[in-house]
Structure prediction request, 903 residues.
Amino acid sequence: MKKILLASTILAGTAGFAAADNANFTFSGEAYMGIAASWNWDEAVGQDIDGDGVTGEADVTRFTPEVTAEFSAAMMTTTDGGLEAGTKITVETRGLSMEDDHTDGGFGTVTADSAATVSRAEVWLSGDWGKFTMEYEGVSAGNPEFGDVDFEYAHSFGDFSIEAWYEYRWGPDNDDYGLEGKYSFGDYAVWLGYEHQEAVNDYEAWVGASAALNGFSGEVEATYVSVADDWDFYAEANYTIDAFTFGAFIEDDGTDDDWDYGVNASYDLGGGVSVDGAYIFDNDATVDGVSMAKVGVAMKF
Amino acid sequence: MKKILLASTILAGTAGFAAADNANFTFSGEAYMGIAASWNWDEAVGQDIDGDGVTGEADVTRFTPEVTAEFSAAMMTTTDGGLEAGTKITVETRGLSMEDDHTDGGFGTVTADSAATVSRAEVWLSGDWGKFTMEYEGVSAGNPEFGDVDFEYAHSFGDFSIEAWYEYRWGPDNDDYGLEGKYSFGDYAVWLGYEHQEAVNDYEAWVGASAALNGFSGEVEATYVSVADDWDFYAEANYTIDAFTFGAFIEDDGTDDDWDYGVNASYDLGGGVSVDGAYIFDNDATVDGVSMAKVGVAMKF
Amino acid sequence: MKKILLASTILAGTAGFAAADNANFTFSGEAYMGIAASWNWDEAVGQDIDGDGVTGEADVTRFTPEVTAEFSAAMMTTTDGGLEAGTKITVETRGLSMEDDHTDGGFGTVTADSAATVSRAEVWLSGDWGKFTMEYEGVSAGNPEFGDVDFEYAHSFGDFSIEAWYEYRWGPDNDDYGLEGKYSFGDYAVWLGYEHQEAVNDYEAWVGASAALNGFSGEVEATYVSVADDWDFYAEANYTIDAFTFGAFIEDDGTDDDWDYGVNASYDLGGGVSVDGAYIFDNDATVDGVSMAKVGVAMKF
Prediction:
């Protein structure tokens, strides 16, 4: 095949006059090492969750070391008119971790990565009028040729800020869109949000409040899911004294009205390094719920 | 397994005495957000191209938001004798885009990336004698164990420049090799190229010219594909006035002697950011041809 | 789905107060271009190893161009108490190379990469007490949900240094752990190591020595593999004069008591660039052994 030395360049755009400038780049990174365990698991027939070579046991424990690292390059440029434009790319190493998000169906299970992960495209424009972001959300479940994209708009007016979003999903009648407003006054803030979900032709709405003073911070939120006629609640408190931070949360997520909860403690070594420990109980996982504990060293660069 | 603390280091090379120096690195990046659509598609039985939930329709439109971002690290070092050596690595986020190259068989279709992309290895050496590049071209179609590599040589002598290439393909009698010479005089340039293709034991040859003056630029090229006894033509013109650039192209690619064409407009916001719009018609795609339009914001960092 | 604006942040840790600082980052890179061949291969029925279009031949040669490149970002921060913490991420381009490690079962075969590679997570802490590292070793063979992790500890006391490791493998009775001590005196060093391997409930032990003076360097090592009642030997010598380095090695790896060997030569161009050539013979591969030769340009950035 003839080399395309002069391919149709018409679509290449004319943005090209900003020579690559290392000053447009801000690097950051994170790393973690530790251990984690979750318990209350029942092995299916032939299944060996705890790696003891015995299958089909009741009430066993998953254990794993955890080690992860990632590198991010944030890029930002400013137009002649003062608009800021940017994006950020994160490369994650192959690593090992236990899911610690109790709202995730995989809570307490282990993810061993055999392939690299690079973040999804997230591109933004920002000016006096606010900040507009487009974010790729992955291949569409309805048709893997197409993909889903979130459109987000955020703006602040003094103590008041709003965020609006439109989540575009390929396919008919399956987009979500919503609005959240927040009012901050001194050490306190309150917010109110609403989202319409086309797939169920119904809505969610939520209200929350936070406070931060004298080393203490806390927040509470209540959400009403109309299609399920269900209320969810979340509350969190943290207390920082010297290098220590202690925290606790409680949450009823999903329609089961069961409470998940957790506690954590962290010791800040300075320079972006801390020793962190946590215990979380997820009532939604398995019949009896699953407990998880983890301890490790977190680093930010 | 015993840890290999002292593995056979014989092949590690002795190039190692250049301590990593951040000055050897030049970073760059690109990002894009916008929307695109292509039309004149007929859905097959059971196929839903436009996502309206109805299959098997005639004359439907593909629509997609587009969002992409990439980060590049270019590396360069200089030997004691003044040779320059370098490479460049690009990491692309997972993103969403519509193919806008009308010479590509997938013109007008959507690519939703579910995995990361890192560029292929491209390594070069450069000196008084010119520039030599080796570039990996991917797994060989004939045998996925092996891969294909391009060897390229380029050099300039005053107003005259040449480029020669050898495209190595694993397997018998399937390599390509060619030569192009270019003469530039003031605002004008003319070029002449030739490539032999072993797979068909025949050649392609081409001649072109370009001009750039008073904000106007244009180029034309004609290619003769001997094995098909076919002439291809390409012409492009661009006009820049203040922050605006307007462009148009017309091309007969392939043996059909049908014309593809497009127009575009771009507004340069400065700082590497522009607003771009384009319309392209590809006569080669489907029976009636496919039209595509796109508009978005392009960023270079 | 409602946007999680206030997700359970309890586990996010409090390490976050070190703003991303580009001074925490040290970049490095490597690139290589050259050619390689290995011979003494017999093609199976229907197999075409040398790409000449003829299958089932005896005594054929694998040939490939080689081109590879990689980029690394090393990150390091220091705690208030003087601990150093860090990690390093390497992104490798898709590339093409021939395996030149004669201890690898794939010696002399070609790897054509069709996907990106990012390094595995390796995270370390270092202080007066030594250096502790956790390194992800990939998906566990016993259960791909889980992964394997190496724990390493290294410390130096004047001329004496030790390294201890525990290689955690998911599953019962399959971990390895060991210790190596090394004593360095002037231009000489000697070392002694031991590793217990649970999977075979047996051990390996090794002893070695090295010297480096007047441009000459050499090292020898002998290893006893108890479970096989087998001794392995390795010896290597290098001589550097001006920009040239010449080397040779000989090794009996595995239980066959056959010798593998190789020679290499390298010319240092300065600035991290060298021209390298090598010949290696692997007695363990195929019935008659496999020979490999390679020459190329190596670059470090």
